Amino acid sequence: MSADRPSAPTETGYDNRRRWQALGVGLVAAFMTLLDVSIVNVAVPSIDRALRATPSDLQWVLSGYALTFGLVLVPAGRFGDARGRRTGFVVGVALFTVTSALAGLARSPEWLIIARLVQGAAAGVVNPQVSGLIQQLFRGAERGRAFGLLGATIGISTAVGPLLGGLLIQLGGEQHGWRWVFFVNVPVGILAVLLGWRLMPARPTGAQDRHRLDPIGVLLLGVGVTLVLLPLVQRQQWPGAAKWLLIPAGLVFLVAFGVWERWYARHRQPLFDLRLFGLRSYTLGTLIGLLYFAGFTAIFFIFTLYLQIGLGYSALAAGLAITPFALGSAAASALGGRVVTRFGRPLVAIGLLVVVIGLGAVVWVLRGSPHVSVPLLTAVPFLLAGLGSGLVIAPNQTLALSEVPVPQAGSGAGMLQTGQRIGSAAGIAGVGALFFSVLGSTRGDWSTAFRHSLLLAAGIVVLALIAAVVDIAAGHPRPRETS
Asked: Which of 160, 132, 113 is nearest to 23 (CA)?
């Protein structure tokens, strides 16, 4: 395909250069919003001292963002499909920028919690527009390259958050450095709004869908996702077992959502087209994404606790310890995006296997009581795990969305990312529970607690590997273009 003629659909009117510029703006915004999932973790001690926050306040600062992020992904994706991605992207980034400034200016825990809740919702508006943009403007191998860049963005933002947070806190000081964790988003957000308005496609490809945005479907899905996520993100602050009853209640609402969407589709365009789950590539990709993020995200949660609280490393040192994973993920994501159309699901399986080997190596090098620097011991194993991760996230997203029609690209990507958010919350809840359980039973043996919980995270990744192998055994075809 020549570089001087547009490879996107002719309806977009986008030449080659402008498509990649628009993608670049989208990736910067996605990086910024995904970074805020992990960057705040290292700022918690500073926030605690500055605002005199209770443990419950701090939990809401961390988990409230993830909760509202996951809540709006599918409705936001549907909005972009129906009314154009530029509006959703610009409004989402603008709101994210404003709430980042408000979070940085917070004078009380309540102020910060409200800002974080709205900030998370804004992030959930932005991200499906980026995936939908890739579906809309790219085809074939170019789509794989674009998703490769998105996968690198996801992997790096998740892993580098603690490092960047540690740097900002060190530069800004223990008392006010945490504010710069939020303020850093403001200039980037302003630039993304201006460039997004100029470069993003204003309308969806082809005829616009002017139907209503299915408010009952939005309500049922929102209540269902909230009830499933709440006990996961509040697992430490809500004592007792009664909170887990919210999960089956949430599943009831999700079933009701499915029934409603099936009926609604007979008359209008639904919030989410359930027929997408009839595509094996989409269903398996969603399942693999949910399982992988359950193990992948939990790793950084327990590793940060182990280093900072258990071993007394600084926030900056803890962030640096995770950098090898980020570097490996960045390098492999670019490669994975380029070759996924050639190798298909086996590439994802290889990546998952490499992640498991890397995590197993981390457990092995930390056996006994380490007498040298833990970040040095784990650098090579985490680099290996990062290389594997880069062959999972982007290729899996490419394969999952490969057969999704462009008019459903935003809502399809939104549901895929909702599964990832639920997986992340469930993984942190399960792996974190084991971590603290072992810590209590061993009377503060942080190394043993970390190794045992890391084995659980690796076991969850093995489940994703099994799903990929099942798909390969069934003879899944390589990705094909959609329009």
From this structure: 132
